[in-house]
Amino acid sequence: MPTVRYLIRNEYGLADPELHRAADKDDPEAILEGVAMAGLVGVLRQLGDLAEFAAEIFRDLHEEIMGTAARSHGLTLRVQQLEAEFPLVENLVIRVLLTMMALIGAVLFKWIKT
Length: 114
Prior knowledge:
Layout: H1 11-14, H2 18-21, H3 28-113
């Protein structure tokens, strides 16, 4: 069952009931005009509510984006640091491998001679 995060209220319920109650009961045109005005006021209030809801959504989205940008910046700095350190590690690994190959070659050379 979905949960309701935001409820849009009825436009006629948002308007002041006096907008159409103040009209003369014998004049149907005045009653209709009052109801139409109440509907218009209600629609405008709905738009205001929608604007507040949109502002809340975009504020939350902005906070998420700023957090993601901060994490991305930290990750970029870490990658740059690793890129700077990688040649040092690569040279060390190459030296160790060359040393090991030289030692293995010397051992094999002695073993073959005997």
